[in-house]
Amino acid sequence: MLDSFLTIATHPLLWIFIGLTVVFYGVQGVVGRSAEAPTAPDDRIRRLAEKVGMKGLHPVLFLILLLTWGIVAGTLFAGLYAILWQVIFHAPPEAAENVWNWRFTLAQLVALTTVLGAVIALPITINRLILTRRQTETAEDALFNDKVSVATTDLATRRQITREVGEGEHMRILSEWQDDILVRAAAIDRLEGLADEREAEAPRIARTLALYVRELSREYPPEEMQEEDTRHNSKIRRWVRAVKAARPDIESAVQSLGRLNTSGKLGAIGIDLRRANLQGISLSGLNFSNASFLSAALQGVELRGAHLQGANFLGAQLQGANVMGAQLQRADLRVAKLQGADLVGAQLQGADLMYAELQGADLIAAQLDGADLTGTKMDKSTLLSAANFSASALRGSDFTSVPQIADHVMYAFGDGSVRLPDGVEWPAHWPTFELDYDQFDEEWRKWQADPETYVPPEAPDEE
């Protein structure tokens, strides 16, 4: 073992290789510090590797391969010229005993020429293989883009239909164009399949599908609930049960978006469904974390068990929506219309429900830990049994007609802007006067940090 190590360690080629490496980096380091070329040696090596189609290799590995190839080629060149010198400047042997040595020399010449040709051709061959691979990738990209273009074009497919109008002599045939729902639904499925085929293209496909939903929602606006119906829980539920999805292709596109997000193909991008008409659509169990449902129409939407962490529902219409068990942590539900919504067991920790309308909503066992319920509207039909209001904020809310809030005020934080039902004792940790917004937020955080020792601020003296 020691003999083998000594043989390798004392071999001249090893020290030639090490010396060339040191010289290369030394020269690159000196040049790299000059004003004319302030780049690091590794950057130069990377650029050289990129030119020969090996940009994926680490600079050190590429340098080792390059120097190895140079040493092998240089050695073969030296051996070839040495043999040529011997053949040219030495006369052919006349004695029979030296003929075989002469023939062996010629065989060496042929072998060296062949090997040297292969070594010189190696970079050219590698470059050709890389170019072939790039051409293949370009062809595959073009084919994939063609598939996406065809599917996207099919999203606008229409068909011509004819129908008879009138009777007898007054009968005539009318021809009109209608959206081809079947072809469009198939195109949506193809786009989802293409996103599965290439995960890197999933965000682009998702943006196309979201745009399709938003544009169709403009053509098919949501049904509006009568103002008087929003005041009665039973009317809300009856109205919601009658709501149907505007079009099956809208539902299919939104469900595809949810499946793509559930599989993690969309990464950190948010699905943009602002002002979309999603009435009556089922999104159960799908992932719409960080999606934007800003001012979307979601009456009657099925959101049971959906993942909606951090989703933006600002101003969304969710009357009568089924949100049972949905994951809504940190969701933005400000000014959202949730009258009659089923929020049983919904996970609303840290959610922003400022000025949300929860009249008649079912919040049984809902988890509202740390939620901001500033200005939230409830009534006597709002169900709050077993709901968790720990560390939540109730600033500016009127609960005079919500007697069921009495079981939860001790676990929440409020101030003098809150109106409690008659007979409900004022919590000891609540300030008795109205705080401004910044002061309320500061005191709320203080109480959350240490509720046992928290002392509310005293009311300012009136002059």
Structural class: mainly alpha
The coarse silhouette is: elongated
- Stretches where pLDDT is under 50 for at least 5 consecutive residues are 34-39
Portion in strands: under 5%
Radius of gyration: 38 Å
Protein model, in words:
There is one protein chain. This protein is mostly helical and about 475 residues long. The protein has a domain at about 10-90 and about 100-135. It has helices at about 1-10, 10-30, 40-50, 60-90, 95-155, 180-195, 200-220, 235-240, 250-260, 435-450; strands at about 160-165, 170-180. It has a two-stranded antiparallel sheet.
Compile the SSE list and pairings:
Layout: H1 2-9, H2 12-32, H3 41-51, H4 59-89, H5 96-154, E1 158-165, E2 172-179, H6 181-197, H7 202-219, H8 233-242, H9 248-262, H10 437-449
Antiparallel strand pairs: 1-2
Helix pairs in contact: 2-4, 3-4, 4-5, 5-6, 6-7, 6-9, 7-9
